[in-house]
Every structure is written in C-alpha cells, then in structure tokens.
Amino acid sequence: MKRNKQRKKRIIYSTIAIITLLGAVVVLCNFIVDKNAEGRTFNDINNVPEMETALLLGTNPKARDGKKPSAFYMARINATAELYKHGKFRQLIISGDKREGYDEPQTMRQDLMKRGVPDSVITMDGQGYRTLLSMRNIKQNFDVHDMIIISQKWHNERSIFLADEMNINAVGYNADDVRHPRAIWTHIRELLARVKLFIDLHVTHRKDFCK
Q: Which domains does the chain have, with CATH numbers?
C-alpha cells in the first residue's frame, strides 16, 4: 500500500514537472518571437516604410462553416488594398496553399483586383502552404531582400523571425485581428506554432532546406 502511494506521488510530481516545463518552453518561445519583432510591425499605415515588395500570406478564404468569408482572410485583403492605395509597395507576392480544387493565391488575387490592385503588380506563389515555405520561396525564387509582410500581428511577428533567419529585411503591416470566441483556437495554435518554429530551425534544421 505504501509503495502504491509513493508511486502515485511520483507520477503526480512527474506530470506536474512535465507540464510546467512545457509551459515554460511555450512562454519562452513566444517571448523571443515577440521581442524580436518589437518596433517592426505597424498598425498605422503612415508608419509603414515604402518598399519595392510586399508579401501577402495566405489563409483559408472561408470561415469554419464553409459559407461565410473568413474574417482573417478579409482583414488581410483589406490591409493589402489599403497599402497599395497608399503607395507602400510596387510588387505584391501572394503566397499560399494551392492544390486541386483549392487555390488561396488565386482567390486573393481576384478579390484584390476588385479592390483596385492591378493584376500587373501581382505575382503568385502556390507553394506557400506553410509560413516557412513562403519565406523559403521568397528567398530562393523571387530574390527579395526587403519586404512588407501582410498578415495579423501575431503571424507577422513569427514571419519576421523566419525572414531574419534567411537574411531578409522585413517589417509587418498588421491586418485587423479577429476577436470572435471561435478565433481563440487560432490564437492557441499560434502559441504552439512558435514552438514548432524553433523545432524547425534548431532541431530538424528545416532552415537548411532553404539555402
């Protein structure tokens, strides 16, 4: 009986220690990413520096119900059109997921053209189904060294960290975030995505695939 109690205590203490360690890792990874992007993401369009290239990061155009437009998506489209109208970029690269029956860059292109962004300034990258791959493609296929990244602030911060790793000078223009209760899962995933970021860069060395 005494041994069983001791075993249960060890299991409980070990579980608490593991959870505490994992929580500390999540907090640390998020702190590093936030700190790295400090002063380099902008809510006010007047503070965004003019650059030759802007990168619009893709997301699902549809909300979870599959009918309504995604609020995250619409915010990125509106932010990009606003940047163009203010003359902040001359070339736009749309990077997102493209597969049979699903094409984020093409859908974004069509919606941007409706908002006055000319097709002549748009280039599409259909191999950006992960942020890491979007940055790889920018470096390898488009020879871009300076750019404005367009997404929500939390995504911009992670993207800037990746851009730094690839020697790309980047700032972010923050599209409006979504405060709906359902969006909480997106923000939780982002916390974990920042841990995955460090695993990709320093454990599995996926950055090496981008050289």
A: 34-210 (3.40.50.620)
